[in-house]
Amino acid sequence: MVGSERFSNRLMNIYLPLAFYLVFLLFPFYWMSIVSLKPTNDLFDLQFNPFWIQRFTWENYTYLFRETAFAEWVKNTLIVSVVSTVLSLACSIFAGYALARLRFPGSNFLGVGIFLVYLVPPSLLFLPLAQVIAKLGLYNTYWALILTYPTQLIPFASWLLMGYFRTIPREIEESAMADGCSRLQILLRIVLPLSVPGLLSAGIFSFTLTWNEFLYALIFMSSGEMKTIPVGVVSDLIKADTLFWGSLMAAAVLGSVPVALIYSFFVKYYVSGLTAGAVKG
Amino acid sequence: MSRKGEMRGGAVTTGSLLERESSLGVILMLPGALLLMVFMAYPFFLGIWLSLTDSAIGRMGQYIGLRNFSDLLSDTIFQQTTRNTLIYAMVTVPFKAVLGLGLALILNNQMRFSNPIRAVVMMPYIVPTALSTLGWFMIFDPVFSPISWLLKHFGLITRNINFLGDPGLAISSVCLVNIWRGLPFFAITILAGLQAVPGELHEAAAIDGAGLWHRFRHVTVPHIKGVVLIATLLSIIFTFADFQLIYVLTKGGPANQTHIFGTYAYQIGLSATEIGMGAAIALYMFPILTVFAVILLVYLRREE
């Protein structure tokens, strides 16, 4: 008796509301997936229940690779995300270490400065930045994104790594210094190997943010075969007729899967990065 | 060599390094600082300059003082944009915070599959917003909307709802998608705060006879106040400065009912090529963002 009462309590307070949340949060993904696996003609047939698949097909996915530049967009997104993540991490390791351990002119002010820079949104800067990119002749080159994405990544990655480096006991570094190691050797041989979780957090974060970025990619990569996945899908796959839904949803699913996978493998690191107060909500 | 000698040696080396520490610090900051200077600080000041000119794309304009800013104040579309942005941020943030708190409280209970559930509820926040928004774009479609299908199926409506085309409805529709996207961020940050609450506190309060509500008010709330405040301020800042969600769903339409600063600056600055005016629109965000950024900074410093 007591047991069943407790269960009905848990049902009302936990499982039922949780079910509502799950339906709300996951339905769009379910919808995208089933539409992407149906022949487009089935969408028009009002006899069919739209929430289920009557006839299954891969044709929307093969269409993407046969008839659109989707494969190019994947390549572009991958190159830009990997290179700008590596570049940002390198800059952030140095900056984070300097802020955590070294006293130099302006170091106090820079800590606050980096935090404020982190709050500057792309929508505030994109118009003048477009002029800078044009002047440097970087339009429709990978460099346009590889060099601008770090401005969004370095602030939070340095902030996160600074916090991480501070948790490493000073004594370890001091004894290495006594053994004659230089500061840079200490950073590379002692601090970094001890900071792998922090580096993973910062790296995964940077990678997903660049993979997902939209505004700069929309403006700086206007030629069809240089686009990234989000921009290519949004601007080249929506057509005037109504036959595009299947391939559009297939592209949205395919473009989301890599970040979803990476995230699932590294949830712990992602969440610890997020809760370090280092993310744009 | 004695231990004492080693210690002294260490101290001396550190001491002499302090001399070089200052220069090394500057050198290590340099690569990041350079990128931020060229692609963030310089564009920021260039943006201020552009906003004071009548520049168009490809043509450096004349200095015209604050005319762009004053022209905008009497521009009815800009007035609409300001109203929309305020609605967009001030309506979605409380919903995200309250619904996120609700989800966090649920996820804080022990249950089966709690790890996969925690992972999966984050998906709206993780995947590329432009792509997941395309899913909503179809869910809101005047012909194919599954919501309309369901309501018609149960006889609640006779004609499909035009979620994004109806001027009265469009802003609510884009707000709904924003809430969907941002709610998990609140849930996960608040959950981290909840897990920092020592279990003994709840037990002690329960033994003292405190009910659920009292335990929430006096044990839980004081512990998560900080994270809720930080998440709220960050969310206000980035909702204010949003772009892609609106761009994908409505491009600011219908009849400018969903334009926010970001999309209107894009339309005027790039589509209409009036880059000076566009820069002025974007800069109108700056004072508002500064206020919230300063509140956040002051709060964080006080916590330290």
Could you give a short description of this structure?
The complex is a heterodimer of chains A (281) and B (304). Helices cover 76% and strands 0% of the residues of chain A.
Report on this model:
The complex is a heterodimer of chains A (281) and B (304). Chain A is an all-alpha fold and 281 residues long. Chain A has two domains: 58 residues, no CATH class; 209 residues, MetI-like (MetI-like fold, Orthogonal Bundle). In chain A, 76% of the residues lie in helices and 0% in strands. Chain A is built from 14 helices and no strands. The radius of gyration of chain A is 24 Å and the shape is globular. Chain B is an all-alpha fold and 304 residues long. Chain B folds into two domains: 38 residues, no CATH class; 235 residues, MetI-like (MetI-like fold, Orthogonal Bundle), CATH 1.10.3720.10. Chain B is 75% helix and 0% strand. Chain B starts with a helix and ends with a helix. The N terminus of chain B is likely disordered. The interface between A and B is large, with 99 and 103 residues.
How are the SSEs ordered, and which strands pair?
The complex is a heterodimer of chains A (281) and B (304).
Chain A: H1 2-36, H2 40-44, H3 59-67, H4 70-101, H5 107-118, H6 122-135, H7 142-166, H8 170-178, H9 183-194, H10 196-212, H11 215-220, H12 229-236, H13 245-265, H14 267-275
Helix pairs in contact in A: 1-13, 3-13, 4-7, 4-10, 5-7, 7-10, 8-9, 10-14, 12-13
Chain B: H1 3-51, H2 67-73, H3 76-107, H4 114-120, H5 123-126, H6 129-139, H7 146-153, H8 170-195, H9 199-207, H10 212-240, H11 244-249, H12 261-271, H13 275-283, H14 285-303
